[in-house]
Amino acid sequence: MSSPATSPRTAPPGPAEEIKFTLPPPEPTGVASLVVHPLARAGRQFVKSLWRPSTIVYPYRTPFGKATERLEDPKFRQEVDIRSGVPIGVGEIWDNYRGVHALNIQTCISCNLCMFSCPDTCIEMVSVETEGGKSKKCPQIDYGKCSFCGFCSDACPEGCLSMTSRYTLTTNDRSHMVYSPQMMNAVYRTKLPMNPIRLARPENEDNILLDQDLCIGCNACSRDCPTKCITMIEIPKPTAKPGEKLPKRIWKEPMVNDEDCVRCGTCISVCPKECLYWGSHG
Question: Does residue 26 have a cis bond before it (omega within 30 degrees)?
């Protein structure tokens, strides 16, 4: 009887048995592992860094003058459309992404609500010249402090400040992180996808109430109201009793139009007698 090794029933060698494995080169030892090998690897990395740095600073410009491009859908610029209050998802960017702000200077009413609602105090109101030689206050944002929470755009009553899908803020100078109203207005004109604007007013929102006994009719609230929703109305002047002296004041009181009021609180902050306050009519 033939042995198992020479048995005719033994299967021929398959493809897996014909594969030859190459062993990795042995690790350097001695002086080579401590000095020569590390220096050779460092030299190779140095030569490569002359052509392209190991740590690439974005935006990176190659020796041929070609800059690093943004990673987004090529059709991104062609499919952009702006519809008020409707989120738009284009390319690889989510429709609710909060990026660089867009500001419509023409509809800004300088109510300061964006600055008041900012938890990082990165918004400053600066003067901007408008048509006709006039000027008004518009927000300026320091993105070195901004946390992109979106509170400013939620608080904007006119919907003139919104967050777009622009995510590139890279710069080599920290001062370039401060975006002026003109720079954010330029972003607005590019018509990037913007987040939905909250225009609905909460039902439980407080109103501006008046303490008539403290009001002196100085007109400061009506003068500084950004929406001009406060009107000074005449009130009857009481007749002084014998030996009584009437208070020195202007016999007018402010009347607030709740429909036009944006609840910015400017009238409360400028009132010298603190006669205006937040409260509920009920």
Answer: no
The first and second tokens of residue 278, run together, are 């937040």
Q: Are 252 and 137 in contact (CB under 8 A)?
A: no
Counting every residue written for the chain, the total comes to 282
Contact assessment for residue 90 and residue 193, using Cβ atoms and an 8 Å cutoff:
yes
| C-beta separation of 45 from 39 below 8 A | no
Q: Residues 193, 93: contact at Cβ < 8 Å?
A: yes
pLDDT in tens, 26-55: 777 777 777 888 888 889 888 887 776 666
Q: Indicate whether 68 belongs to any domain.
A: no
SS (H, E, C) 44-85: HHHHHHHHCCCCCCCCCECCCCCECCCCCCCCCCCCCCCCCC
DSSP letters along 120-181, please?
A: T--EEEEEEE-GGG-EEEEEEEETTT-----HHHHH-TTS-EEEBS------S-GGGGEEPH
Residue ranges making up the domain that contains 121: 73-200
- Residue 207 DSSP symbol: E
Are 214 and 255 within one domain?
yes
pLDDT tens-digit series, residues 83-115 = 444 444 444 456 567 889 999 998 898 998 999
CA 26 → CA 22, 29, 196, 250, distances in Å?
12, 9, 62, 98
- 227 domain residue, yes or no: yes
Which one of 155, 173, 200 terminates a domain?
A: 200
